[in-house]
Design a protein that fits this description.
Blueprint lengths: L6 E6 L3 H12 L4 E7 L3 H9 L5 E3 L2 H5 L6 E4 L6 H10 L4 E4 L6 H14 L4 E4 L6 H12 L5 E9 L9 H20 L3 E7 L15 E7 L4 E7 L7 E8 L2 E5 L7 E3 L2 E3 L6 H4 L1 H16 L8 H20 L3 E2 L11
The protein binds (2R,3S,4s,5R,6S)-2,3,4,5,6-pentahydroxycyclohexanone.
């Protein structure tokens, strides 16, 4: 593709995230154009495509990827549909931004990893957008800078206002804690070796059949301990905090996101209702950097390896959640393609 031409992007899956990425690519991102939207619900795809000049609606991802005006693919369909779409894109050597999870389990993630290795170069960026959040980026820089010494522990808090009705207890790990899995691996620059899920007495507002909140403990290769409070139905807003405890100091992010107001003898601020608003600028940065790297002919950001490692940790987490025991994680050796 000539670098001066806008990158023609097919967005596969137009639910909450996919529709937001269509808007973002169309209104915010430079150097890209949405040329295809794909959804198994034809009407939904058509409504989105009709609002964008030069955009075609499809119900089949493979048909969209074969179109002459599609240079790259953004996959935002549900996790179980990712493997087929990823393999199709790799078969066509198309660059991909794949929303998390890469795939729902480590066996399917490994198949994708192997397909990309057969291709011989990286084509996939996984949508772990917290790596693009300004506060997370500052935390990463501080940890990498070394002035605080080694990180000994990290405390994560991940609270959602409420989950959609189809959200299961397993998804607290595979869909939500998946972010802390990636953030931990990235921030500490090492793999997670074991996971244990604890369940306190549930909130009386937890949906039937779901123990909510839960407390997850990761052990890492260097012996750091990392905990995650995951609360699916906290009822008051969306909050994501992280605090790294290092040898010579602690760093905490996520407490305030927005103006602090003082009035009527009180101070306070607003809590964002969901991740689309809380991480809006992270998503913008993530998609812009994918478009820029792709137009330069390269690949950036979290890789298929990161997607595989996260899938393996989440799988172990779900097992721990089910069986109430500590579960160790056994990754394959990291292939040379992924540094
Ligand atoms: C959702 O799928 C996300 O990816 C959000 O970032 C996360 O906070 C939420 O818990 C998940 O359900």
């Amino acid at each position: 593709m000539p670098p001066q031409r806008a990158l023609g992007v097919a967005v596969v899956g137009t639910g909450k995230m996919g529709a937001d990425h269509v808007r973002r690519l169309h209104d915010v991102i430079s150097g890209a154009q949405v040329t295809a939207v794909v959804d198994i619900e034809a009407e939904r795809a058509k409504t989105l495509a009709d609002a964008i000049d030069g955009c075609t609606a499809y119900t089949d991802a493979a048909a969209a990827m074969a179109a002459h005006d599609v240079d790259a693919v953004l996959i935002a369909s549900p996790g179980p549909a990712h493997e087929a779409a990823l393999r199709e894109a790799l078969g066509r050597d198309l660059p991909v931004l794949c929303e998390k999870p890469l795939t729902p389990d480590s066996a399917s993630a490994l198949r994708v990893l192997e397909a990309e290795q057969r291709l011989g170069h990286r084509r996939i960026q996984v949508g772990f957008m917290r790596r693009y959040d300004p506060e997370y980026m500052k935390l990463k820089r501080l940890l990498d800078g070394g002035e605080l010494g080694r990180a000994l522990m990290v405390h994560h808090r991940h609270r959602n206002l409420a989950m959609p009705p189809w959200f299961t207890e397993e998804m607290l790990i595979s869909d939500s804690v998946a972010h802390e899995v990636d953030a931990t691996r990235w921030l500490l620059d090492q793999e997670i070796t074991a996971v244990t899920v604890h369940k306190p007495a549930p909130s009386s507002y937890a949906p039937a059949g779901m123990r909510d909140p839960q407390f997850v403990l990761f052990e890492t290769r260097s012996g750091a301990l990392v905990d995650v409070e995951i609360f699916g139905h906290c009822g008051y807003g969306y909050q994501v905090h992280a605090e790294a405890v290092c040898e010579r100091g602690t760093v905490r992010i996520g407490d305030e996101h927005g103006p602090r107001l003082s009035a009527d003898g009180r101070w306070g601020g607003r809590i964002t209702p969901d991740y689309v608003e809380r991480f809006e600028d992270a998503y913008d940065r993530e998609i812009q950097s994918w478009v820029d790297a792709t137009r330069r002919g390269g690949t950036t950001g979290p890789s298929t390896w990161d997607g595989y490692a996260a899938a393996a940790v989440c799988e172990a987490g779900v097992l721990s959640q089910r069986e109430g025991r500590r579960v160790e994680i056994d990754l394959i050796d990291r292939p040379s393609l992924y540094g």
